[in-house]
């Protein structure tokens, strides 16, 4: 299996190369040259597998010759052995039709752990075969940062520089990043900036020859294909438990950067019977507008109680547009150049019609989010974080046939957003015992202005240059 860029002009790479590269050299995102597909019988045979074994089975076609099946299984067992629940991503039933897929049982209490615990091991595996250090540069709206830092803290030949918008993440999210004091971890609070601003600086660094020539720069954001690959697995895990391949299942996905829901699209291309992918957004609704009217135009970011969705530029949407437009990299490069110049573009008819075949969307404002939190608490005794509540709002308003189970992806532990949950329910969720001392730990971060030269200069001063 090799990987090609959505913009058509970067060299193809194998799985190891795409994992270490992150963003393609032409500014595009790597995708597999073709989607592997399982037959209904092959999917049925996966029922009952432990999560780590299911993960290795789903991911092996993407890995190709970069890892043996035996080594891949060793890595998935190591990655998912750190989760607090034996099922790794357990399902919970809310009512006759609605289910929660709990993705927050990893070490940092968010769905990003499912991918990043494995990605940290893959980095270490592939870096061990060469002489370069890897300089990871990422931006986070909350959960990616802590999950990525936990995954690579203290690992050999890796330094991580994580940007977050100052004052725009929750106190738990911030502390989960800034209390990791490993020498290879650098937390940067970007002042007077949104997540989109921070992400734009990261993408600029990947295209800055002055930086990429000196440092081996890699990505942990969902622009990294390996991270998306790992997220495909839990769609299969949930589908199998609810009757796949003999029964289609719908998924409601709270999303900002489109990575988590794109993993569901990949699962569908691989043969999982997905009835519908429901894209759930907050008032920062560029994806909802794109899917309902074809209008992909960025507005001003509005801060909300669901900060991981406070995004107006959804990087992974490019992967879907590429697939729906006949995988024409030249055409997509021109389309994305228009967007990057004007922050607005209109989807083509082929893109709109292709998306409508599988995707729908819903937008939730602050009141609708709070109502969903209250409903789950009163109806089933479940506490939901704001992001999951937005997903549940979309699930309950989707109007799907009653015989189609709808799985809402529960993306974060409610204790990561204690204030919002308490306002909606009157009940303040507690942090799990394993991170209960979070607010007594020492913090370490640096504040830098939202200026590319300042960010790049800091990275250059603290990163390890390429060997030779």
Task: Itemize the secondary structure elements and their pairings.
Blueprint: E1 2-5, E2 13-14, H1 15-21, E3 30-32, H2 40-44, H3 51-63, H4 69-80, E4 91-93, E5 98-102, H5 112-127, E6 134-139, H6 143-152, E7 158-165, H7 171-178, E8 185-191, H8 195-206, H9 209-212, E9 217-218, H10 225-241, E10 249-254, H11 259-269, E11 274-281, H12 286-293, E12 295-297, H13 317-324, H14 329-342, E13 344-346, H15 349-356, E14 359-363, H16 366-380, H17 386-396, E15 406-410, H18 418-425, E16 446-449, H19 452-462
Parallel strand pairs: 5-15, 6-7, 6-9, 7-8, 8-16, 10-11, 10-15, 11-14
Antiparallel strand pairs: 1-2, 1-3, 4-5, 12-13
Helix pairs in contact: 3-4, 3-10, 4-5, 5-6, 5-10, 6-7, 10-11, 16-17, 16-18
Give your account of this protein's structure.
This protein has 468 residues and is of the alpha/beta class. It has a domain at 91-107 and 226-425: Rossmann fold, CATH 3.40.50.1100. Helices cover 42% and strands 16% of the residues. It has helices at 15-21, 40-44, 51-63, 69-80, 112-127, 143-152, 171-178, 195-206, 209-212, 225-241, 259-269, 286-293, 317-324, 329-342, 349-356, 366-380, 386-396, 418-425, 452-462; strands spanning 2-5, 13-14, 30-32, 91-93, 98-102, 134-139, 158-165, 185-191, 217-218, 249-254, 274-281, 295-297, 344-346, 359-363, 406-410, 446-449. It has a six-stranded mixed β-sheet, sandwiched between helices. Strands 9-6-7-8-16 form a five-stranded parallel β-sheet, with helices on both faces. The chain has a three-stranded antiparallel β-sheet with strand order 2-1-3. Helix 3 packs across helix 10 and helix 6 runs parallel beside helix 7 (171-178). The radius of gyration is 20 Å and the shape is globular.
